[in-house]
């Protein structure tokens, strides 16, 4: 009895010590991975990083070359601070180099895009949309003084743009106004080429946003559209053109994006997402792909499923892969907040300027059918080569769905190779006919980039709508 009493006293003492360090709530909630977290935890979501006191803010007068307070535009890139821990990491990659082959080259398009491209998408009016989080404060691009946002967390005016429209040909930048925080959000393109973007952080985690492809368009936002908060979620386009959004931090479910101005009142549980949550949540940004039969392949952490989104049932379980998690954060652990504002362009080796590149095919935009592509129909257009003739065996036609890219993951990316059914040379070039995809399960309705490749050298793409 004395022994039991001594053990009891020891246990009580240990519990008291743990409570003093962890807090009573954490002590009695050992599975609090499924509960809420304070905002400080969101700012350091995976823990273990030492915190530093932020440097004192600099006033506008201290920033040489900054824009005037009543104007919009770029401000000067500040001097670099101390290098982060991640910047000291090095990696050696063994490659086999053939000296007779070019390696490609990087060139800087712009020294200052205004914001970091945490999220990026290419739109059909020839612009890239880049946006970051509003959590880290000011960017390097001002909004107009009469077009500022109210920061809902700090309850003050924020006159810094956290999104830009970037002309990747000229390097020109136009500020865009986002009201809610897009940190670690998702996106994709609808059938009309609008960027449909969902989720994010804090006040933005249930928001659905729309941006149309025009030179004066700006974001339209619909807060509280989603039933659950979606931070680090994946958005997938479906064959009927709708979107479904999967997962996110402590969101073990999926739901369809509602129409603008509408609200979801429920979500659908997805056991895979709860089952694959570990102590560092290695199932964020789950991989989702539309299969040719209309079902979805969903992969989280180290395993996957084939999922029928129409009947909301799992058709097949994919066994775990050896070697651990593949999703974020395991796929990008240790990466700090993006702070790079330079924009570079990569010229691949097949565009190295030699003779076969000088013969790069050119699509005649006036030959493209105005009605676009129709599922299962023939699609005829014209192209030419500047120097040498090419035969049908040298030519391939592809169509590419541009993705929404963030955190090293490209959502809704898709590439199709189209069958050539007719190839007619004439003095002005070539008339070529291809088979359009037979059904939306292969290519959901949208605008695609269509390329002609001649001897493995691609043309400049043209935008084509399939419907």
Automatic annotation (TrEMBL):
Domain Glyoxal oxidase N-terminal: 118-333
Domain Galactose oxidase-like Early set stretches: 368-466
UniProt-recorded name of the protein: Galactose oxidase-like Early set domain-containing protein
Lineage start: Eukaryota, Viridiplantae, Streptophyta, Embryophyta, Tracheophyta
């Amino acid at each position: 009895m004395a022994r039991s009493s001594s053990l009891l006293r020891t246990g009580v003492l240990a519990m008291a010590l743990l409570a003093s360090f962890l807090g009573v709530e954490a002590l009695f909630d050992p599975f609090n991975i499924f509960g809420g977290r304070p905002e400080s935890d969101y700012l350091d979501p995976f823990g273990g990083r030492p915190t530093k006191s932020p440097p004192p803010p600099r006033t506008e007068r201290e920033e040489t070359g900054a824009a005037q307070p009543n104007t919009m535009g770029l401000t000067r890139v500040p001097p670099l601070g101390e290098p982060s821990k991640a910047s000291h990491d090095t990696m050696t990659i063994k490659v086999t180099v053939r000296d007779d082959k070019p390696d490609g080259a990087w060139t800087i398009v712009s020294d200052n895009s205004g914001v970091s491209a945490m999220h990026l998408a290419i739109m059909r009016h020839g612009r890239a949309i880049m946006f970051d989080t509003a959590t880290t404060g000011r960017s390097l691009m001002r909004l107009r003084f009469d077009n500022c946002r109210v920061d809902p967390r700090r309850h003050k005016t924020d006159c810094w743009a956290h999104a830009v429209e970037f002309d990747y040909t000229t390097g020109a930048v136009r500020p865009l106004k986002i009201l809610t925080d897009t940190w670690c959000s998702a996106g994709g393109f609808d059938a009309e080429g609008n960027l449909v973007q969902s989720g994010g952080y804090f006040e933005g985690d249930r928001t659905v946003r729309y941006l149309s492809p025009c030179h004066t368009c700006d974001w339209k936002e619909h807060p509280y559209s989603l039933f659950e908060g979606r931070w680090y979620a994946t958005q997938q386009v479906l064959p009927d053109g709708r979107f479904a959004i999967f997962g996110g931090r402590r969101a073990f479910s999926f739901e369809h994006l509602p129409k603008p101005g509408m609200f979801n009142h429920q979500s659908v549980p997805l056991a895979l997402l709860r089952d694959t949550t570990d102590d560092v949540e290695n199932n964020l940004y789950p991989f989702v792909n539309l299969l040719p039969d209309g079902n979805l392949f969903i992969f989280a952490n180290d395993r996957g499923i084939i999922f029928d989104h129409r009947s909301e049932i799992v058709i097949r379980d994919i066994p775990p892969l050896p070697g651990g998690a593949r999703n974020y954060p395991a796929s990008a652990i240790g990466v700090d907040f993006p702070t790079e504002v330079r924009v570079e362009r990569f010229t691949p080796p097949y565009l190295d300027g030699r003779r076969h590149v000088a013969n790069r095919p050119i699509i005649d935009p006036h030959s493209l059918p105005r009605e676009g592509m129709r599922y299962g129909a023939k699609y005829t257009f014209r192209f030419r080569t500047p120097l040498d003739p090419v035969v049908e065996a040298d030519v391939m036609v592809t169509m590419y769905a541009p993705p929404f890219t963030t955190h090293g993951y490209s959502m809704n990316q898709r590439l199709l190779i189209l069958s050539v059914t007719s190839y007619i040379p004439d003095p002005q070039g070539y008339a070529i006919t291809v088979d359009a995809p037979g059904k939306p399960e292969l290519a959901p309705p949208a605008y695609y980039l269509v390329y002609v490749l001649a001897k493995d050298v691609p043309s400049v793409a043209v935008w084509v709508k399939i419907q």
